[in-house]
Amino acid sequence: MKFGIVTFPGSNCDYDAYHAVTEILGEEAAYIWHKDHDLQGSDVIILPGGFSYGDYLRVGAIARFSPIMQEVAAHAKSGGPVLGICNGFQIACEAGLLPGALLRNSHLQFVSAEVRIRVENPDTLFTNRYDRGEVLRIPVAHGDGRFVADEDVLDRLEGEGRVVFKYADASGNITGAANPNGSERNIAGVINESGNVLGMMPHPERACSDLLGSSDGVRLLESILSRVAA
Amino acid sequence: MSKFRIAVHITPRKGLLDPQGNAVRDALHTLGFKPVKDVHVGRYIIIETDAADAGAAQATVTDMCRKLLANPVTEDFEIESAVTA
Prior knowledge:
The structure holds two protein chains of two kinds.
Chain A (H helix, E strand, L loop, with lengths): L1 E6 L6 H12 L2 E6 L10 E4 L20 H10 L4 E4 L1 H8 L6 E3 L7 E9 L15 E8 L3 E3 L2 H9 L3 E5 L19 E5 L5 E4 L17 H12 L1
Parallel strand pairs in A: 1-2, 1-3, 3-4, 4-11
Antiparallel strand pairs in A: 5-8, 6-7, 6-9, 9-10, 10-11
Chain B lengths: L1 E11 L6 H12 L12 E9 L2 H16 L5 E5 L3 E2 L1
Antiparallel strand pairs in B: 1-2, 1-3, 1-4
């Protein structure tokens, strides 16, 4: 399977994603320049973390108009998997691929830490290798990670199982203290209606080796592999 | 076509938590500006554009706000009257 990793000016987790796909998962990966109009035959698109366009105007606001985003949107519309991580999540929201938006952390500080997230829905393309309620250790590194949406949108997302991950404590309790950025309802990751676009603030691609602290992110990539390859 | 100058105010949507505004409000309180009730921090954008007339210029900028300058999920925008640049 081929993963296409989009590089925007200011992306800085594209190499991490490339490493995770090729070295850990053992699959093919290609960097896709944001000015291109060719997904190079990729089966899965990763919108990586970083600070595309210097976060000018709003996080992700300018990147969403990059030429390649037309192809990414078409890929998503036809059911192709898209994984937006951190800045990639912000871009996906701005592009309307996912509901809601990411705002400045409520405490106004950049947060770089390992957090715990609880798997709310293991029946997705991206989470089928996890158990419901399982607590994962995954790092976050962001200044604008506070997920917001209107109350009725939040209710709908929760009702439809589209809140995939929530920030939790080590025992899996959803608490204010476990919420690193003030996200509504501790939401760490959401999926679109058709279940093929996932956005999340934590970095699974940086949690792919016990040597680096956690390998809990590996199964997210394996989930995609098992579902798409089948 | 004439040249117009239009200013746009973009503010956090009403009712949404505005931590920046709160931080500024708290700093103002510390400075002794006790009567301050609320502060909101947003963006001020000035656009210079060619247009047939002021109405057309404002319509174009409204379109810009919907497409790029403001995010309807989190922000409100207000457009000032176009002035000849």
